[in-house]
């Protein structure tokens, strides 16, 4: 140990009294900016800005074509209209039925995903043994990797027939089965992000609870979960934003009936399902029906952007900083 300290002292003395290039020859004159580090820095900077540029281009395209739509349709009729029939006679462009269907799916699915995801995260981080975690975590990750179109077929072939035994009046395409499968698909996202937040709580705080004589249940519910609150809330909001943008599962399971209803047993249509309907049809390019997808897409973009911003603000406001 003494020899190592003497060697470190000798190197530091040379670095101060002699040329730094002679002491740290392999790094050059500026050790923290060697060629490798500079290449890594420029590469990461390039891809970081590339992501920003792509996002701005998407926003530009949506705004450009959205403005063309609103030059022909009144924003008042669009935002406050109660009927959505772009192919009808007369055409009606009230987006409220689509927003209503989207929020029904998002709120219902987060009611399913939030408690199940949080309980899964607590179980995996606090109660499960290493052997159980090795089996459970890959299974949950597989659940998150299943294509959403498969969830749509699962809703039609499994969920809806089961629901029909309980609710005989339920329609083949309905909001409830779509809500259930979207909620299931969100569980891995909530569980993963919540587990990361729980793991970030210092062990010393948990041990402090045990030192005071608290049981494991009380340590989890009164110390760990409150300490990880900001991360848990952010995971729920991000999952909510993802549910709003869910496409294929709701397209297959919820149907294509834009209704202003709160009945989960009826067929509805979400904003993303409408975009899919137009994209797969033979709508003429440049028509007012064609530009509806950009108006709805811009609307959807702004909603998800708002929820992501809200999640960021909550994390900043309630974040616990441990030293």
Walkthrough of the structure:
- This protein is mainly α.
- The chain has helices at 2-17, 20-23, 35-70, 75-80, 96-127, 130-145, 148-166, 175-199, 203-211, 216-227, 229-244, 248-253, 271-280, 288-318; strands at residues 84-85, 92-93.
- A two-stranded antiparallel ribbon has the order 1-2.
- The chain is globular and about 90 Å long.
- The two termini are 30 Å apart.
- 31% of the residues are buried.
Distance between the ends: 30 Å
Q: State the assembly state of the protein chains.
A: single chain
Q: What overall form do the CA principal axes indicate?
A: globular
Number of helices: 14
Low-confidence sequence ranges? none
Strands side by side in the biggest sheet: 1-2
The helicity comes to over 70%
Radius of gyration: 27 Å
Mean pLDDT: 85
Given helix and strand content, the structural type is: mainly alpha
Question: Biggest sheet, in brief?
Answer: 2 strands, antiparallel
**Helix and strand element order:** HHHHEEHHHHHHHHHH
Give me the secondary-structure topology.
Layout: H1 2-17, H2 20-23, H3 35-70, H4 75-80, E1 84-85, E2 92-93, H5 96-127, H6 130-145, H7 148-166, H8 175-199, H9 203-211, H10 216-227, H11 229-244, H12 248-253, H13 271-280, H14 288-318
Antiparallel strand pairs: 1-2
């Amino acid at each position: 140990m003494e020899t190592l300290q003497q060697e470190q002292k000798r190197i530091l003395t040379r670095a101060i009294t002699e040329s730094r290039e002679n002491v740290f020859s392999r790094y050059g004159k500026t050790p923290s900016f060697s060629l490798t580090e500079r290449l890594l820095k420029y590469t990461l900077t390039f891809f970081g800005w590339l992501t920003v540029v792509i996002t701005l281009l998407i926003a530009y395209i949506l705004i450009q074509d959205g403005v063309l739509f609103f030059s022909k349709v009144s924003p008042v009729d669009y935002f406050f209209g109660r009927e959505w029939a772009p192919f009808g006679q007369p055409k009606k462009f009230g987006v409220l039925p689509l927003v209503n269907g989207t929020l029904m799916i998002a709120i219902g699915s987060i009611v399913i995903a939030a408690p199940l995801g949080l309980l899964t995260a607590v179980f995996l981080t606090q109660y499960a043994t290493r052997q159980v975690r090795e089996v459970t975590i890959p299974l949950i990750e597989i659940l998150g990797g299943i294509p959403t179109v498969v969830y749509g077929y699962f809703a039609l072939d499994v969920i809806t027939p089961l629901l029909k035994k309980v609710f005989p009046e339920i329609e083949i395409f309905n909001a409830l089965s779509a809500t259930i499968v979207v909620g299931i698909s969100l569980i891995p996202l909530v569980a993963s992000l919540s587990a990361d937040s729980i793991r970030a709580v210092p062990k010393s705080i948990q041990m402090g609870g045990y030192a005071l004589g608290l049981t494991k249940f009380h340590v989890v519910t009164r110390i760990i979960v409150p300490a990880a609150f900001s991360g848990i809330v952010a995971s729920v909001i991000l999952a909510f934003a993802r549910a709003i943008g869910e496409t294929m599962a709701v397209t297959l399971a919820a149907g294509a009936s834009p209704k202003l209803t709160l009945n989960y047993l009826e067929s509805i249509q979400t904003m993303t399902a409408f975009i899919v309907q137009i994209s797969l049809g033979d709508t003429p390019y440049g028509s007012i029906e064609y530009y509806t997808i950009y108006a709805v897409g811009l609307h959807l973009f702004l909603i998800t952007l708002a929820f992501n911003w809200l999640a960021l603000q909550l994390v900043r406001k309630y974040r616990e900083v441990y030293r």
